[in-house]
Amino acid sequence: MKIIGTGSSLPSLSVTNEMLSVFLDTSDEWIRSRTGILERRIISDENLKDLAIEASQKALDDAGLTGSELDYIICSNVVNYYVTPSISCLVAGGIQAACPCVDLNAACTGFLYCLDMAAAYIAAKKAKNILVVCAEEPTRMCSWKDRNTAVLFGDAAAAAVVTEGDAFRASRISAFHRPEVLYYQRPLEDCPFVKYQQRGVPLYMNGKEVFKLAVNASTQGIENILADTGLTADQVDHYILHQANMRIIETVRTQLRQPPHKFPHNIESRGNTSSASIPLLLDEMHRNGTLQYGDTVVLCGFGAGFTTGTCLFTWTMNE
Ligand code: COA
After folding, report:
1. pTM surpassing 0.90?
2. What's the DSSP call for residue 61?
3. Are 104 and 175 contacting, i.e. CB atoms less than 8 angstroms apart?
4. What's the CA gap between 79 and 94, in Å, rounded?
5. What is the distance in A from the centroid of ligand 1 to the CA of 148?
6. What's the 307 CA to ligand 1 centre distance in angstroms?
7. Which residues contact ligand 1 via a Cβ below 6 A?
């Protein structure tokens, strides 16, 4: 498998830390020093479906394909206004695709899960051209009265088109049972036969525990993928990590003894955009010329579940 196009789309509203401190007991200094976030984009008058369609169309244009040439659409999404039909079906309508569509929820690890699934479909010759699109609005899971979570997230959609090729060299995904550290429960409709109430719980996070799990999973995931490919950490050009906290990225970088320029980041202006964070950064690096033909790239993510994923590939665009 190889990536042949990327695209992304952001909401227009930029929300700074100062804007949050107007209605939350927080400060720019606290958010900046604990997370690295300065501002984030938040959906106001857009909707997520349209951002997902725009990101997908840009990725198709970049790949030189039309929607009708896709064999499969896999969308990573945790929440959006529609529970059904899937957001991937809504995207298909927006890009004139007529292929099978499925949504996948692996929380913030979604892009790694999508790529792993796409690679399996391509290897099995069940599909050739696959659109992977990550569309997330985590700002709709938080309580905006809870400073522990509301300051961390931003919204975005980002996509990649993949096809047959031999650029992908290794992929590992995993999940272990730790739902209590990070979860969101949404209200369901009342039913006359249900004898208990499910009113929903806004996003809950045990920040310190998630921090430890994230650092350990990321470092271990990268070491495993290096072992799978027989490469050393020094031979990788770019480590694109889930953008959840600058301190997590820095801790992993230090443990791997790598220089800062190999760990790109956009968390300062995007916040944590859940599964969209890795493909969003990938798209930005592709479009600003940071990724060069032949570069070795590691993607590494983690999220609620607790899910983790890592993959390694050669960048084969911009030859
Ligand atoms: N502004 C000001 N104070 C805040 C705050 C905010 N936005 N959010 C929390 N606090 C307070 C807490 O109430 C707590 O106060 P207390 O000590 O009086 O109870 C205190 O800050 C906690 O501070 P600290 O221990 O320094 O926090 P931290 O270093 O653990 O940082 C996180 C908090 C959330 C930034 C950090 O734990 C983290 O990033 N964890 C991982 C999150 C993550 O990756 N999530 C995404 C998973 S996909």
Report:
1. yes
2. H
3. no
4. 19
5. 6
6. 21
7. 26, 30-31, 34-35, 108, 147-148, 151, 182, 205, 207-208, 210-211, 214, 244-245, 248, 272, 303
The secondary structure of the chain in percent helix, strand, coil, rounded to multiples of 5, reads 40, 25, 35
Pocket perturbation via mutation, ligand 1, pick of 19, 24, 30, 34 by most ligand atoms within 8 A of CB: 34
Domain extents in the chain: 2-168, 170-314
Integer Cα distance of 90 and 174 in angstroms: 28
From ligand 1's centre to the CA of 299, what distance in Å? 25
User: In the structure, what pLDDT confidence band is assigned to residue 198 with cuts at 50, 70 and 90?
Assistant: confident
CATH of 2-168, one of 3.40.50.150, 2.30.30.240, 3.60.40.10, 3.40.47.10: 3.40.47.10
pLDDT tens, 236-287? 999 999 999 999 999 999 999 999 999 999 999 999 999 999 999 999 999 9
Active site residues: 108, 242, 272
What fold characterizes domain 170-314? Peroxisomal Thiolase; Chain A, domain 1 (3.40.47)
Domains 2-168 and 170-314 fall in the same CATH topology: yes
Nearest residue by C-alpha to atom 8 in ligand 1:
148
Spatial neighbors of 120 by CB under 8 A, at least 6 apart, are none
